[in-house]
Design goal:
The complex is a heterodimer. Chain A is α+β, with helices and mostly antiparallel strands. Helix content of chain A is 23%, strand content 16%. Classes of the chains: A alpha+beta, B mainly alpha.
């Protein structure tokens, strides 16, 4: 047991935990953070070396523990994925998606596919496509930096459009959040273009009522546009479902000016790692928190159980297990004790901890779970990718990964019929979409056609796709001809990514695996994930059609490859992970990294885990922050809202600590 | 070994389309060629099962290079199917290695998928030194030597990157 009693014990040192720690620490409150992963390194050069050496540049590739070991590859495990049962803090990685049916390689476990389903059945379960980090600073190590607010309409999806749920208070919730959005924008140090955002807020009737705050602006000027942005900005006379289509500079958590951190140097590598920390990450706030002198942190310390007083229902301590080496034995156990407790371990590990805490007699279904909602309503922005070749060079692979997007389709009457989306414009060519530059390279060196640039392929619009029609199909090039061909392709590559709003579905959930554990003996997550609403699937149909229209408008040729038919049954390595069919089309979806909804706030104790103050309905001194509190995933990337909610929670906790100490003083005075 | 290196670099110039000054400059602190030659030699020997294949490739190149031929003619002669499948494939893998910093394995077509290529990165240095970044007039992802805002302007000409 720790010797000191803290005002607040926090589980997790990502952006939410760090913000709350900093806010309390600067007010003189004593805070302890339990971090399951390894410490923040003194510099990031070690991470960079790991990243450079990794064959697959996935979001997790720079970070310990290393998830790729080609030397360990076997026919059954070609990527050399480590066995999660042997790791103290295993984590889910994008590389595990295609191993999703093999628990010896995939941290998550999944329920079996129900018998007799077809590729378009709503009940098909998929691999979850997004991942997170268990490390000091959390998942902001590999976030993109996109810092958009939600609209107030996003908080009233049920009232306005009849789908999902409202956030508690709806529009009032947004109004209360406005000052915290401003704090979050300053903490992250967002580079943004107020005029561009004003246009969007006006379009969606957010600005005229002044709800975004009188002092609203960005700390830094907008990141300059890329040449790719300039091409997509030429779309000016197109509408979708009554909304105009126009692009906007994206507010981004990266420095457009030198400051406390360096000015962005356009490494085109925001995910998985900014080599110069021009992009904000939570280690910035964590360092500030630690420098208050009031915040302590324990690394390699895994919260394993929450103790609850049966009489009062209050949390009395958080048990933890420590380790020295990621693959080694536990090195100790303990219990962290505070006045208040905060869970900030992201939307998979937080419900996992709550569900593991099932030894309390009055709470046999886990802590904070009287509603039965813990772990439910798992959501993501389900991504549709489209890619093409611009008619003229746009010099892709240069600049931050994304510097603008189409935000003008995020709301409208169509939300009664299908999910809304925003469209991210990529600067990284076909890197994400088609594993380039390597796919195109291999095609023209070995005479293959996986990119469709070197064969007789035609696209979905019937356009021939061979890059150079004067060359024969399956050409094998060398020398100057290879140089010219590769250059001609790479500098024209463009990519769109649609972030489709997923509805809360109580059956999409995180549970505890009944059979699989990690190396500490803790049960691993059992994840059930479907995309079963036509509401969401219709957005894929729209995204597909809109992509073609945009590519036509800018004179580009579309190269999007429709995925093969889903394979639902068979050997683990044969079944597909993220493919589905809808209305005669094959789709594959990608993860946005936006893991949302597993301990949501609400107005009623019966349908939510937390009250609107992000406080457990069941345990008055327990709070939770992070994207797990979101009742809906909404239409903006979540991190700015996560940060705003963390600032709001910090105020609530400070208020409650003050009240607790006043009550204690009164009790002491009356007893004396 | 120096003769092998000379032939390796010369052949690489012909096949990649990049100049000697880019691949193996006189003052060469990166010296990626010294990583690539042993990888090439070991992998080609292992995959072909022919202990003399690498020597045959270099010998053929040296012979062609001694004649008054253009780089295009030398390249075509090296990649002529008459040289044998393993010989040509080795030369093609040499191209891939320089461009990707990785050693390729070709996955043959199957009933459900067309032929494709997977590759194994040779080293961290090979990743940053690989030519794909040069041929796209950019920089390795994660290793930019440029300054803020460069992405708003066209790059310098391709020839500045290839040295040709």
């Amino acid at each position: 047991m720790t010797t000191q009693t803290y005002d607040l014990v926090i589980v997790g040192s990502g952006i939410s935990g760090s913000i709350v720690a900093y806010e309390l620490g600067r007010q003189g409150k004593k805070v302890l953070i339990l971090e399951a992963g390894q410490e923040v390194p003194v510099d990031r050069s070690g991470y960079m070396r790991t990243f450079f050496k990794a064959n697959a540049k996935t979001p997790e590739s720079p970070y310990p523990p290393t998830t790729q070991d080609p030397k360990a590859s076997t026919p059954d495990n070609p990527l050399g994925l480590p066995d999660p049962a042997l790791e103290n803090v295993p984590r889910y990685t994008v590389l595990q998606i295609n191993s999703w049916r093999n628990p010896a390689q995939c941290y998550f476990t999944y329920p079996p596919q129900a018998p007799g389903l077809t590729g378009d059945s709503p009940e098909v379960v998929f691999a979850f496509a997004s991942s997170y980090e268990r490390i000091g600073g959390g998942t902001t190590w590999h976030w993109l930096g996109t810092s958009l607010r939600h609209f107030w309409h996003d908080f009233e999806l049920k009232t306005l459009y009849g789908h999902g749920v409202d956030w508690p208070g709806g529009q009032q919730f947004y109004q209360a959040l406005v000052p915290y959005y401003e704090k979050a924008t300053k903490e992250i140090g967002v580079s943004g273009d107020k005029a561009a955002m004003d246009k969007i807020y006006t379009q969606f009737d957010v600005e005229p009522s002044g709800k975004y705050g009188p002092d609203y602006d960005y700390p830094m000027p907008p990141i300059v546009a890329s040449l790719v942005d300039n091409l997509f900005a030429t779309v000016t006379d197109m509408t979708v479902d009554g909304n105009p289509v126009y692009s906007s500079p994206t507010p981004q958590g990266r420095n457009s000016l030198p400051g406390d951190r360096r000015q962005c140097a356009g490494n085109t590598n925001c995910i998985p790692i900014c080599p110069i920390q021009a992009k904000y990450d939570a280690t910035v706030t964590l360092a500030n928190a630690l420098q208050t002198g009031n915040v302590d942190i324990l690394y390699r310390t895994v919260a394993s159980n929450i103790q609850v007083d049966a009489a009062t229902g209050e949390v009395t301590g958080i048990d933890y297990i420590t380790y020295d080496d990621h693959l080694g034995p536990p090195s100790g156990t303990g219990t962290a004790v505070g006045t208040k407790y905060l869970l900030a371990a992201h939307a998979i590990e937080t419900p996992r901890l709550l569900l593991m805490s099932n030894k309390n007699a009055k709470f046999p279904d886990g802590v904070a779970n009287s509603s039965g909602q813990v772990g439910r309503n798992l959501m993501d922005h389900i991504m549709y990718l489209a890619w093409g070749l611009a008619k003229d060079p746009v010099y892709a692979y240069r600049g931050p990964l994304s510097t603008s997007g189409y935000e003008s389709l995020r709301d409208g009457a169509f939300r009664k019929n299908r999910s809304a989306y925003r469209i991210e414009i990529g600067n990284e060519g076909w890197q994400w979409a088609a594993n380039d530059p390597y796919t195109t390279l291999a095609d023209f060196v070995f005479g293959q056609n996986a990119s469709q640039l070197n064969g007789n392929s035609v696209n979905q619009q019937g356009q021939p796709l061979r890059f150079n029609p004067s060359l024969p199909a399956n050409s094998q090039l060398f020398g100057q001809q290879l140089v010219d061909t590769l250059n001609g392709v790479y500098i024209r590559q463009i990519r769109l990514g649609y972030l489709i709003e997923q509805l809360p579905d109580p059956d999409n959930r995180v549970q505890l695996s009944p059979t699989e554990t990690d190396h500490l003996g803790l049960p691993r997550p059992l994840v059930t994930y479907r995309i079963r609403n036509d509401y969401e699937r219709e957005a894929f149909v729209s995204a597909k059609a809109v992509s073609t229209e945009i590519f036509n408008a800018i004179g580009a040729t579309e190269y999007t490859i429709p995925p093969p038919d889903p394979v639902l049954y068979g050997a683990p390595n044969e079944v597909t992970a993220t493919n589905f069919q809808y209305k005669g089309n094959n789709f594959t979806f990608y993860g946005a990294g936006h893991i949302v909804g597993t301990y949501r706030i609400g107005d009623e104790k019966t349908n939510s885990v937390l009250n609107p103050r992000q406080q457990s309905w069941d345990h008055a001194n327990l709070y939770m922050v992070g994207s797990g509190v979101f009742p809906t995933v909404a239409t903006g990337n979540p991190t700015l809202t996560i940060a705003a909610l963390a600032f709001q929670a910090a105020d609530n906790i400070l208020q409650d600590l003050k009240q607790s100490s006043e009550e204690e003083a009164e009790a002491m005075a009356s007893s004396s | 070994m120096s003769n092998d290196m000379d032939n390796f670099v010369g052949l690489s110039v012909v096949l990649t389309g990049f100049s000697r000054e880019v691949l193996a400059p006189d003052l060469d602190p990166v010296d990626i060629k010294s990583e690539y030659l042993p990888v090439f030699t070991a992998n080609v020997t292992k995959e072909s099962g022919d202990p003399s294949l690498v020597a045959d490739i270099f010998q053929k190149y040296a012979m062609l290079q001694s004649q008054t031929l253009t780089p295009q003619q030398i390249g075509e002669a090296m990649l002529d199917p008459a040289n044998g499948e393993a010989f040509v494939l080795a030369c093609r893998k040499l191209i891939f290695m320089w461009y990707a910093g990785a050693w390729p394995t070709i996955v043959p077509a199957s009933a459900t998928a067309q032929a494709s290529t997977v590759s194994d990165l040779i080293s961290a240095k090979a990743y940053t030194a690989s030519l794909v970044w040069q041929v796209m007039q950019s920089h390795p992802m994660g290793d930019s030597n440029y300054r803020y805002g460069y992405w708003n302007k066209p790059p310098v000409p391709l020839s500045d990157y290839t040295g040709q």
